[in-house]
Amino acid sequence: MESNFNILMFPWLAHGHVYPYLELAKNLSTKNFNIFFCSTSIILSSIKETLDRNSPCGISINLVELHLPSSPDLPQNYHTTKNLPPHLMPKLFDSFQNSNSSFSSIISSLKPDMLIYDVFQPWAAKIATSLSIPAVHFATSGATAYSFYHHHFIHKNSPFPYDGIYLRDYERKALQSMVLSRDKNDQDFAFGHFSMSCEIVLMKTCNGLEGKYLDYLSVLCKKKIVPVGPLVTQADESDENHSDIMKWLSTKDRFSTVFISFGSENYLSKDQMGEIAKGLEFSNVNFIWVVRFPHGERVSIEEALPKGFLDRVKQRGMIVQGWAPQAKILGHPSIGAFVSHCGMSSTIESVYFGVPVIAVPLKLDQPLNARLVVEAGIGVEVVRDANGHLSSDEIFNAINTAIFDKTGEVMRLKAAQMSEMMKSEEAYAMNETAEQLRRICMEHKHHIEEVNIH
């Protein structure tokens, strides 16, 4: 194996970005790369805890602090999307965009052999390129959504070539209003993160799940798309903080229990929570439901749910507030389906553990990930009305399909097969990733040496 190369990794400040970057960093650290991980102090302290608690021998990651411009409205404990009050999200985004001078100092000082950067900072790739450092984009969203949006960005109104992937009218309107709020001249916001990437784009996915969309995206963006594999964080067996959940799960029959979670940064309205609660109650299914409220909201679970719900379901339901060990729960044999928002990490975890998805997408790439699992035969989507409203009847229907119908058995069989396929790809994907990165570093090093000679 070639001598070590230094890689600087620079994710966006959201949990769903930081932890895939951290998993990739840990994997590359075992492949003879020296890893420098750049983020804010609040995120780095969380990462240090994670690495100290649950990191195999031989993994060494250097943590590098990014300084955001100081602001009384955005103290350091808010330099992350986790627990950030929603009204401060635009301020955090702007502050991050204005951290380029801090980042420039970091990369100029470290002089790494490569930068791996995230979706919201093509400017970091420009800084790296100006210093003759190759920059590679690592996308934490999947190929299905990227190929869909990239197709429409290039081909405007022509239909996407795969019928199973589409947006409903209310989803399209929500997306358009989000895009219209951006600067129309901001080309970097569209696909600058792809165009700035050196030769390849890394993507958190697998060929078995998204093969045809990986191929199509490669054609659209004229880059080789390299799937890095699932990057699932393995459960820490020594974690006793949630042993009550696992003990409770162990009292339930195989495939009898539904796990409900909408990710670490999505919040349901009171109406949505009410409809889900009624659907769960009607279905008579066992369930674990992770409930979250925006930081600073003083709402009790009793207030947020229908009156008397907790008493009526206490024998078969468990409500967990804040956080639960998702990978550990999905890996338990009692789990029969996962009610999910279909963020890419959650979608991949569901497939990795062979659990069918009951899809309740909320925004961005989630509707397209939902259509992906339905197309693959490993999920059912909760149907909404024309305005995008959830109903308890459709929640009930989807749970019934996934847990009690023959269709659910077929989905579980397909999910188990896809799980095996994903796990069999895992080592190869990471070896191929390391090989591609090593090749780019070596070619660049030789190029610099030749330029210096001449």
Automatic annotation (TrEMBL):
Annotated GO biological process: glycoside biosynthetic process
GO molecular function, one term: UDP-glucosyltransferase activity
Any one Pfam family match given in the protein's UniProt record, by short name: UDPGT
PROSITE patterns: UDPGT
E.C. number: 2.4.1.-
Keywords: Glycosyltransferase, Transferase
Domain Glycosyltransferase N-terminal per the UniProt entry, residue ranges: 6-231
Top-rank taxon: Eukaryota
Protein family membership: Belongs to the UDP-glycosyltransferase family.
Name the UniProt record assigns to this protein: Glycosyltransferase
